[in-house]
Design goal:
The protein is of the alpha+beta class. The chain has three helices and four strands, in the order βαβαββα. A hairpin with a 2-residue loop joins β3 and β4. The mean pLDDT is 80.
Length: 110
């Protein structure tokens, strides 16, 4: 994840193999995004994820990131250069995404 004016956060899934598919990465990423927008006052975050990393791409899209571009040969893995999706999320989009469940609950009550 990258801010247009701040640091880059690069989580590596290989660091967490014993904890895969338990929702920890999603919860940690949501907390990091909230902190970046609320406390650090970032306006926009981007994520660069290898196209073939389907779980990571699915997770960030579910959180609210949207695909903006494809970066050709951005990551090198095992001597092979791989393409990546560039995904972005603005603070405004994050607020709207976070409020959607509340709107659904209110609609269900009426």
């Amino acid at each position: 994840m990258r801010s247009t004016t701040g640091p880059t956060i690069i989580p590596r899934s290989s660091d967490f193999n014993n904890h895969c598919r338990k929702g920890y990465a999603r919860e940690a990423l949501k907390a990091t995004i909230t902190f970046a927008f609320r406390n650090l006052k970032f306006h926009r975050l981007t994520a660069e994820i290898e196209k073939d990393n389907l779980p990571a791409n699915k997770m960030v899209k579910k959180i609210g990131f949207r695909k903006e571009a494809v970066a050709k040969k951005l990551f090198c893995s095992d001597g092979k250069w791989n393409d990546a999706f560039i995904l972005a999320l603005t603070a405004e989009e994050w607020v709207i995404k976070r409020m959607q469940p509340m709107h659904r609950l209110a609609a269900a009550d009426s």
